[in-house]
Design goal:
The structure is a homodimer of 349-residue chains. Helices cover 49% and strands 12% of the residues of chain A. The first copy, chain A, has 349 residues and is an alpha/beta fold. Chain A has a single domain (11-347), classed as TIM Barrel, CATH 3.20.20.210. A seven-stranded parallel β-sheet of chain A has the order 1-4-5-6-7-8-9. Chain A has a two-stranded antiparallel ribbon with strand order 2-3. The longest helix of chain A has 25 residues, at 177-201.
C-alpha cells in the first residue's frame, strides 16, 4: 500500500475530506482518452482491451494527462467492465460499437452461474498498473481507482451492451425481483473486492460510477438499487480512503445517492452546483460539474462557465472541480489544459 | 374550428384548466403507435412518411387507441419533423434508423436560407387529418395537436438526425450565438404558425414537445432556449386552447420551463410528481408521469405505480395522467388498456 506516502500535492484528498485547500483541485473524468494525441499514438498499436490488460500501457496512458494537463489527481486507465470477465461474462469491444456481452444475464440460472472474483487472479493487470503508476508518480499527486456501480454493471450484463431504454433490465427488476436482487448482490460483492484490491495495490481514493442509473424513478432507485450501492459503500469504509459516488443524470436521486453513501457526491452538469449541495447538505463533499461539451466552446465561454461553478461552490471546503461526465474525444487538448489553469487561477484563496 | 363543440367527455380539457373532474383523465404519449396490431397492419402497407402525409391513414391511426384503450383525449398521428420540410429541410426516414436530414444547418447562410412555413401549403395533410379525426370523433373526446419545441427541432436540424451528445448543436450555441438565436427565432415562428393552423383546423389543445432539451444546464437553457420557447407560448395564448409544455429529462429545468409558459407542464418519470408540482406551484396543471417501461411489468406492479402517482397528485385539480415519455413498441397492448382502466378506477372522486 502506498496510500500513506506523503504527497507533494494533496489538494484532491484534502478536498475529499472537506479540509481547506489553497485552490480547488481538478481532474477530468476519462482524462486518459482519445482527445489526446499521445493516447491515440498508443491506441493505434493496440486494441482497447489489449491496452487495458497491459499494465505498462495502462500506466503510461494513465500518466499522460498528468504530464499534459497538470491535474491534481490521476485516475487509472481501465474499463468498468473488466471485473465482469472473472464472473463468467464473455466480453468483447466491437470496432466503433462499444462493449458487447455474448452471454447476457436473463434468468435465475444465469445469475446462479456467476462467480465472485479473486482480483489477484482475475484482474492482475489492473493491480499491476496501479503499482506501476504509483512508482512513476513518486508521490506527486494521488491516484484514483474506480469501478462501475451495481446498477450500471447489471445494465450491461442484462442488456448485453449499451442501452437507451434498459428494457430487459427493467423487466427483470419488475418481473423477477428476487433474481434482480440476487444479481445486484453478487455484483456488489464483486465491486467491493475489486476496489479493495485497487486500494491495497496503492489507489488513494476510489470512484464508483453509476453512469446509467438516471433511467430510474426515485421509487425504483430506492427499492432496487440503493441497498446494493449501500452494500458497496459500507464495504469500502474500513479501507480509510475517500469514496466518490457519481450517479449520472440523477438530479432527482441525489438525496438517495447520498443515503447509499460516499464521501464525495459527483454531480453532472444538469443541476446548479449550489442547489445540489444545499439539497445534499454540507456534511458531504461534491465533485463537478461542467458540461463536457463546454470544452468545445471558445476559451472565454469556458472561463465564464468555470467562474460560475466556482462562484456557486463559494470557496466552501469540499469541492473538487470536474466535468459532469467524461471528456469527449473531439475536445481540443489546449482547451482541457486551459480549463485546469483557469480552475486553479480563479479558485486561489 | 370545432373547438367550441360540446364534448361528451371534457375531463381532459377541464383538468388542463385545473377545474374539478370526476376522475383523472389519461392519454398516452405516442398512443398511436407500433405496440398496437391495428397500427402495424397499416404500417405494413405504407412507409412512415407516407402514413404521415396521407390524411385518411393519419386519421385512422389517430383513432385506433381511442377505440382500443378508452383514453380521454386523442393526439394527432404525425411526426415532429414534418413542418421542417416547408422550411427547406430535406427529410428522410431511413429504415430502422430514424430521421435523416440531408442538409443539416451549420452556418449563418444555412439559417438565412430557411423559409417560414405556410401551413395550408406546406402541411395541408396535417390539417386535413385534424378535420377528418374531428368528423369521426363527433365530439366524444378532444383532439390534441402538437409540435416539437424550438430546441428539439433545432437539434435535429443541426445534428442531421438523432443525437446523444448534441455536439454540433452546442458548438453553434457557444461559438456562434447570433446564428443560434437567429435559427431558434425562425423555428419559433414556424412552431407558432404550425400550431395555430392545427387549432384553426379543430385541435382543442396542443402539446409542445421539448424531447431533448434535458441535455442543457439550467444556465444554458435560460440563455439559449427559454426566450424562444416563450415566444412560442406567448404566440399561442390568443388561441384560447390549453397548451401543454413537455420538456423531457428536464427535472432541474422545471421552473424555467414554467417561466417559458404553458397551462400544463409535462413531467417525465424521473421526478416524484408531488415534488415537481410543489416546485412548479399549484397555479399550473401537470401531466405525467409513469415510466413507459413500467408497462412491461406485471399488472400488479403497474397498479401499484399508478396508485403511487395518484396519491402524489392527491386529487388536486389539474392532473392529467400520462406516461413520462412515449409508449414503447414492445408494450403489451392489454397492459395499456389496463393502465387506462386503473387510472380511472383509482382516481374516481
Amino acid at each position: 500500500m502506498t496510500k500513506d506516502v506523503k504527497l507533494a500535492n494533496d489538494r484532491f484528498l484534502r478536498a475529499c475530506r472537506r479540509e481547506p485547500v489553497d485552490y480547488t483541485p481538478v481532474w477530468l473524468m476519462r482524462q486518459a482518452g482519445r482527445y489526446m494525441a499521445e493516447y491515440m499514438a498508443i491506441r493505434s498499436k493496440y486494441s482497447f482491451l489489449e491496452m487495458c490488460k497491459n499494465p505498462e500501457v495502462a500506466a503510461e496512458v494513465t500518466l499522460q494527462p498528468v504530464h499534459k494537463l497538470g491535474v491534481d489527481a490521476a485516475i487509472l486507465f481501465a474499463d468498468i467492465l473488466l471485473p465482469l470477465e472473472g464472473m463468467g461474462i464473455s466480453l468483447e469491444f466491437a470496432k466503433n460499437e462499444g462493449p458487447v456481452i455474448h452471454n447476457p444475464i436473463r434468468s435465475e440460472a444465469d445469475v446462479r452461474a456467476l462467480r465472485p472474483i479473486e482480483p489477484a487472479e482475475d484482474v492482475p493487470y489492473v493491480l499491476e498498473a496501479v503499482q506501476l503508476v504509483q512508482r512513476e508518480l513518486e508521490g506527486r499527486i494521488p491516484l484514483i481507482g474506480f469501478s462501475g456501480a451495481p446498477f450500471t454493471l447489471a445494465s450491461y450484463m442484462i442488456e448485453g451492451g449499451g442501452s437507451r431504454e434498459y428494457i430487459n433490465c427493467k423487466r427483470m427488476m419488475w418481473q423477477a425481483p428476487q433474481v434482480w436482487h440476487a444479481l445486484m448482490d453478487k455484483i456488489a460483492g464483486v465491486v467491493v473486492s475489486y476496489l479493495t484490491a485497487q486500494v491495497q495495490a496503492g489507489a488513494q481514493a476510489v470512484q464508483v460510477f453509476d453512469s446509467w442509473v438516471g433511467t430510474l424513478s426515485p421509487a425504483d432507485y430506492k427499492e432496487y438499487v440503493l441497498p446494493h450501492s449501500k452494500k458497496v459503500m459500507d464495504g469500502l469504509k474500513h479501507l480509510g480512503v475517500p469514496v466518490i459516488h457519481f450517479a449520472n443524470n440523477a438530479s432527482t436521486l441525489l438525496e438517495l445517492v447520498k443515503e447509499a453513501g460516499g464521501d464525495v457526491i459527483g454531480l453532472d452538469w444538469r443541476i446548479n452546483l449550489d442547489d445540489a449541495w444545499q439539497r445534499l447538505g454540507y456534511d458531504v463533499a461534491v465533485q463537478g460539474n461542467l458540461d463536457p461539451m463546454a470544452l468545445m466552446a471558445p476559451p472565454a465561454v469556458i472561463e465564464q462557465k468555470v467562474q460560475d461553478i466556482l462562484a456557486r461552490a463559494a470557496n466552501r471546503p469540499g469541492h473538487i472541480f470536474n466535468l459532469g461526465h467524461g471528456i469527449h474525444k473531439e475536445t481540443p487538448v489546449e482547451h482541457a489544459i486551459a480549463l485546469v489553469e483557469v480552475v486553479h487561477k480563479y479558485s486561489r484563496r
